[in-house]
Amino acid sequence: MKFSRLILKNLFRNKLRAGLTVALMASIFFFVATLLSILDNFEQAANAGEGKNRLGVQSAISLADMLPYAHEEKIRRIEGITETSKLQWVGAYYKEQKNFFANFAVDADKMERVWDDYRVPDDQRAAFKQDRQGTIVGPGLAERFGWKIGDRIVLTGTIFPFNPELNVRGIYEHAVDSASLFFQMAYFEQALGDPGQVGMFWVKVADADRMASVSEEIDALFRNSEYPTETFTEKEFQQQFISMIGNIKLLFTTVSLCAIFMIVLLGAITMSMSARERVTEIAVLRAIGYSRGAILGLMLTEFVLLALLGGAAGAFGANVFYRFIDMTKLTQGFLVNFGVSGPTILLCVAAALGVGLLSGGLPATRSANLSVVDGLRKVV
Amino acid sequence: MSIPLRYNIGSLMSRRTSTFMSILGIGTVIGIMVSMVALYNGVRTAIVSSGSPENLMVLREAALTEGTSWVTKEAYRIIRSLPGLEKQSNGDPVISPELVVIFKLPKKDDPKGSNVNVRGVTPAAFALRPYVRLVEGQMFRPGVNEVVVANRVRNRFANLDIGDTFSFGPREWHVVGVFEANGTSFDSEIWTDADFLGLAQKREAYSSLTLRPVDDVAFKSITDSIKSDNRLKLQVRSEYKYYADQTQGLLGIVILVAFVTVFMVIGATLGAMNTMFSAVAARKRELATMRALGFRRRAILFSLVIEAGAISFLGGVAGVLLALPVNGISTGTTNFQTFSEVAFSFRVSPAVALFGVTLAVIAGIIGGTLPAITAARVPITTALREV
Questions:
Q1: Which residue of B has its CA nearest to A330?
Q2: N or C: which end of chain B has fewer CB within 10 A?
Q3: pLDDT per position as a tens digit, A239-262
Q4: Which residues of B touch A21 (CB under 8 A)?
Q5: Chain B within 8 Å of A158 (Cβ-Cβ)?
């Protein structure tokens, strides 16, 4: 601690260089923090339904195949299931094709029991149930398109040949999902002329321990039927979409590591420069009795501090930046509730520590091992 | 008088280690950027090159993709008899009714599987797309459960070699051949007989019609007659436009690539700036001596900017070289417009390489200017005195 003043003085002896190094590290760590947070965000989305004891039942044949209504009755008879609901992905957009978001038709009277984590005020829920063309929307969606309760909105259908005309009856609250729209299955059926088939059933299981066996039972029930099913937990359901994107985890990790490698290299240049400048000074310190270890410690601390400063600035900067930026709008709904979490900041700061040690290690060792006589003689 | 380039080369060589490290550092960021652009280029090429501007594509009104479209056999017969269609060698019009169904099949590295487009076709599909050719085995026979599989699909999915049988829904399918389609999105598909696929999947309508008019006049008249026929309720656009519109499903990749590019250019700029500040600080006296010898400020400034440009040019070239190994790596992603896999390869095309090097040089020049100005401004006497 007694050297802290010396270290601080040295750190900012060349303000421009220190500033630039910090800026470089900060921008790269901002970048890395963003990539890591995107991975985090996907993970979070996948975990959204955790503890809700919900299972989704889908056609095992493909995403585009549907299941007959008769399945629902059979599923409901399985012990341990408390409620079931149909859910249909509608794939409509609002006004322009780029205004794409998740919209579903759902059994209005069962929604509150299967999706009890979507909280809606009682009066809004009642208004929704009463209006066949009623809809409940997420707060993010309402903000994005300026919808208020009572508004009439018309969506354009793409998968099904009809354009849902809906009245906003409620705005739900949910911990993670803020950008979905639900409307009545009854309206959907009426518009399509009773299709008799649906994309998914969602079931609520009474007991978390029974999830796996219920899932097995459902699939076993239809294994040899013309419409075999595949039952997912909510997490697996979300993950299938994330894994569809491709191996982003590998991509993002590789890119982050390469970017960090770059700052190790460029950091090393700056730090050797700074060490070279002080050859004489260090020789003097050694001459008045500082040990090699002390010099090594002093220099390395300085370099590590510089890197930490950059890393922290980048990661905290990203944290603050994304609070003020509407990422949902910017990415057109791709990233919802995007933010840089504490663990991500910590990880970045730890990586910055590594960068400081790696890039400062060589110059610091060289300075520590400098021959005193040579150092004193040398004119820089 | 300007400072000879030999001076810059000399000073780069005398600081060999740090020059090399700067080049490698800038190279790394440019390499990342080039790889990402190559990724986007690969996916985009795979999708866009599938469509020809001379062909017309017919889908259900409001359908965005073939997967959610249907065109009745009645509509097919009406459109087939329109005048102005090009003829095949056997005299049939070049109009290809196609049925697209999604199969979820297990992948080699993921037993849960992924969605593959299965396209039911007639011989007209091959007349429209002569680049689709069989590379192994034989063509499927009409009316039976035989399929041909794109080479990339065979390599990524389990159990799709010639002679293999896979089950989908209630039926089994035999793989009899492997085809290639010139890097288009058909390289991500399985093809079989349209009528048999319709029978197997209980689909009475086709998904789309693709047709080739004889000339621009016919192109226009066919478009108009389909649009104005109220019975049909179909939309029609050029096949190229259809596939270009599909790239909307790649929005996520576009945002990502733009983000990476911006940050890598910032990184390269700051990197070049850092390097040049160090380089300039190391030779303050040298530069002052040159000023004393009569070189003008502007000459010094210019010379230093050139040096920064040279370092970053080399960095850019190193970046492209570092990115070259990813060229041709094939992988897959999902087009969220169609919800099916697009197999593609990273493509470091000359344009992508040029883009990388150009951005590197721009970053170098921007990054080198400030240190150069600072260096050129220092009063000679101060610099000469400095130890």
A1: B255
A2: C
A3: 877 877 778 888 899 999 999 999
A4: 274
A5: yes
Contacts of residue B245, Cβ cutoff 8 Å, sequence gap at least 6: B64, B337
Shortest distance between the Cα of B20 and any Cα of chain A, in A, equals 10
Classify B333 as helix, strand or coil: strand
The secondary structure of residue A105, as a DSSP letter, is E
DSSP 8-state symbol, B162: T
- Check CB contact under 8 Å for A20 and B277: yes
Contact in structure between B85 and B93 (CB atoms under 8 Å): yes
| B165-168 and B56-60 strand pairing | unpaired
Integer angstrom CA distances of residue A213 from A60, A76, A115, A307: 18, 14, 21, 52
Q: What is the pLDDT of residue B308?
A: 93
Q: Do A23 and B282 touch (CB under 8 A)?
A: no
Separation CA A359–CA A361 (nearest Å):
6
Count how many Cα atoms sit within 13 Å of the Cα of residue B365 in the half-sphere of its side chain: 8
A370: its two tokens: 């400098």
Global pTM exceeds 0.95? no
Residue A259 CB neighbours (<10 A): 22
B331 at the A interface (CB within 8 A)?
yes
Q: Which residues, including other chains, have CB under 8 Å from residue A223's CB and lie 6 or more apart?
A: none
A77 secondary structure, DSSP code = T
Integer CA distances (angstroms), B98 to B19, B118, B133, B342, in order: 59, 10, 18, 19
* Interchain contact A259–B (C-beta under 8 A): yes
Stretch B272-281: mean pLDDT? 86
Q: What is the pLDDT of residue A24?
A: 92
Per DSSP bridges, beta strands A102-106 and A165-171 are unpaired
B114 in Cβ contact with B334 (< 8 Å): yes
CB atoms within 10 A of CB A265: 21
Per-residue pLDDT tens digits for A43-95:
888 887 777 889 999 998 877 789 999 999 999 999 889 999 999 999 899 99
Q: Inter-chain contact B24–A157, Cβ cutoff 8 Å?
A: no
pLDDT at B1: 66
Tell me if B35 sits within 8 A of B326, measured CB to CB: yes
Q: Is B168 on the interface with A (CB under 8 A)?
A: yes
Distance CA A16, CA B278 (A): 11
Distance from C-alpha of A171 to C-alpha of A260, rounded to nearest angstrom: 43
Question: Within an 8 Å CB–CB cutoff, is residue A243 touching chain B?
Answer: yes
Of A25-29, A41-45, B77-81, the one with minimum mean pLDDT is A41-45
Q: How far apart are CA B375 and CA B387, in angstroms?
A: 16
The two structure tokens encoding residue B44: 């985009």
Residues in chain A closer than 8 A to B26 (CB atoms): 262
Read off the pLDDT of residues B45-72 as tens digits, 9 standing for 90 and up. Answer: 888 888 999 999 999 988 888 988 999 9
Residue A103 confidence (pLDDT): 94
- Chain B residues 235-294 with a CB less than 8 Å from chain A: 248, 251-252, 255, 259-260, 263-264, 266-267, 270-271, 273-275, 277-278, 281-282
Tell me whether residues B63 and A244 touch, CB distance under 8 A.
no
Task: For strands B133-137 and B114-121, give the pairing.
Answer: unpaired
Query: B224 pLDDT exceeds 60?
Result: yes
Token couple for B322: 């570092």
ipTM above 0.85, yes or no: no
**Contact indicator for B122, B96 with CB cutoff of 8 Å:** yes
A336, A328 contact by CB (below 8 A): yes
